[in-house]
Each structure stands twice: as structure tokens, then as C-alpha cells.
From TrEMBL:
Record Pfam families: Redoxin
Sequence ranges assigned to domain Thioredoxin in this UniProt record: 17-161
GO molecular function: thioredoxin peroxidase activity
Alphabetical list of NCBIfam families matching this protein: PRK00522.1
SUPFAM superfamilies, per database record: Thioredoxin-like
Protein name (database record): Lipid hydroperoxide peroxidase
Gene3D superfamilies: Glutaredoxin
Domain of life: Bacteria
PROSITE patterns cross-referenced by the UniProt entry: THIOREDOXIN_2
Keyword check for Oxidoreductase: yes
């Protein structure tokens, strides 16, 4: 699959999850250095927001938007995943007042497992996945142009149908 970054084509490595498939398990570390696995998050419907670099404007907008949604919808789990370091994520969250769960994929295992790794820029593609309590992907969006925001409304609506 290809995406673009300001019009430049980039190739995603691997296979991307599609609606109706079982989500690939992952094991990532949060800001408290606790290991979090997919199964830990499935007590409620789950929205996974994937951003290429938390220190860029569109990623910041996306993360703040889902942080606002998370604060108003306790019946849904929200998580943001990037391959930024703990320090980058912590500093950004502190500066922006964001308290949602942030997971880091510094070894790119998640990115490769979900087919979101872009070798040319060593970052993840921008994506959103909604996963039900059985671990099945019920909504997926891999944003075709990395510099653009995802469709928040469609993702939130997809998650709400699982409540």
C-alpha cells in the first residue's frame, strides 16, 4: 500500500488490518513504563490512533482531539501510538495537558505488525483502528496523505456503535 507525504509517494511495509479481521496482538510500553497488550484494552471498545511524530502539528491536533473524546466517553478506551521516545511523548503531553494513554513503538514491532511502517521516513503512517471487545477490527482508516487529518467523526461513530 502507498501513502503520500506532501505528495511524495511512500510505501507501507507489510499487510494492513482490514475490517472484519482479528486485530494483531501487540505489546507496547506506556508513559509509566508499564507493558500494555491489546488484550488489556479490550474490556471496552477500543480506538487506536496512530501518529507518525507527536511533535508535528497534525499529530498534535489528532492526539488532542482524541484526548477530548476520551475525556467525554468513559465507555470507550482510547490510545495513541507513535514511535516517539518516552521523553518526547511525556514532554509533549505535559506541555499540551494531554492525559490519554500514550504507547510507544520505538522498536517498530507494532508498525510492522499492522503494516504501517514507512522505511523511507522511519515513522508510522497516520491511521485509526476501532476494535471491538472480541478483538476484531470494526473500522480502519489509513490516511492516504500523511499531512492530513483522519476522519474523526467516522471513527467515533464506529466506536459508539459498539457500546
Amino acid at each position: 500500500m502507498q501513502v503520500t507525504l506532501k505528495g511524495q509517494p511512500l510505501e507501507l511495509k507489510g499487510n494492513q488490518p482490514v475490517t472484519g479481521e482479528k486485530a494483531v496482538n501487540f505489546s507496547l510500553v506506556d508513559l509509566n513504563d508499564s507493558t500494555v497488550e491489546l488484550s488489556d484494552l479490550l474490556a471496552k471498545p477500543l480506538v487506536i490512533s496512530v501518529v507518525p511524530d507527536i511533535d508535528t502539528s497534525v499529530c498534535a491536533i489528532q492526539t488532542k482531539r482524541f484526548n477530548q473524546e476520551a475525556a467525554s466517553m468513559e465507555e470507550i478506551n482510547f490510545v495513541t501510538i507513535s514511535n516517539n521516545s518516552k521523553e518526547q511523548q511525556s514532554n509533549w503531553c505535559a506541555a499540551e495537558g494531554v492525559d490519554m494513554m500514550m504507547l510507544r513503538d520505538t522498536d517498530l514491532a507494532f508498525g510492522k505488525g499492522y503494516g504501517l511502517y514507512i522505511p523511507e521516513i522511519n515513522h508510522l503512517a497516520r491511521a485509526i483502528f476501532v476494535i471491538n471487545q472480541e478483538g476484531v477490527v470494526t473500522y480502519e482508516e489509513i490516511v492516504p496523505e500523511i499531512a492530513q487529518e483522519p476522519d474523526y467523526t467516522k471513527a467515533i461513530e464506529a466506536a459508539k456503535t459498539l457500546i
